[in-house]
Amino acid sequence: MKKHIYDCLFLKFSRIELFLKFVIFSCLLFTFMSCINTPNPPNKGLKEIAKELMMLAENAAFITIDTLGVAHVRTMDPFLPEDDFTVWMGTNPKSQKVTQIQNNNAVSLYYFNKENAGYITLQGTATIVNTKDKKERYWKKEWKNFYKNTTTDYVLIKFVPSKATIISEKHQILGDSITWGAPELNL
To answer: Of 1, 94, 126, 175, which is most buried by a Cβ count within 10 Å?
Structure first.
């Protein structure tokens, strides 16, 4: 008669012992898995970290959608964000982005900071502003060679975000370990 494989000395367990080992293994597995998706809490609030990323980035990528649904990305030199995360940018009124904003004001703004290994993507709406007081307030001397006549050659884009996604290795703000989804901030 053949010996059964479970007749080995080290594999002989009673049903109670097997059950206890299963329970212990399950508890350990559950504990390990719950730790994986729990990032270390940041020392700063998410809004503070988001503002820091925006202020440290040299430029931002401004994304619009054309009438065919094609995304267009360009580098912008935005002003620092306001307290409510509103961002102002200058552009030529004849630029493609102005037409795209007038047709579809849902846009995105993306800041990346290589030194701190972090980024923020903001989604919101943009409007074109062409008032003298705002254009005087949001003007950079470095732009004088781009805009010969600020009355006719210069308009503002006012970007008001509604949502942001943030990654910051410096602050331990990381994406989900399974989906890689970045933490979201509703504005």
So the answer is: 126
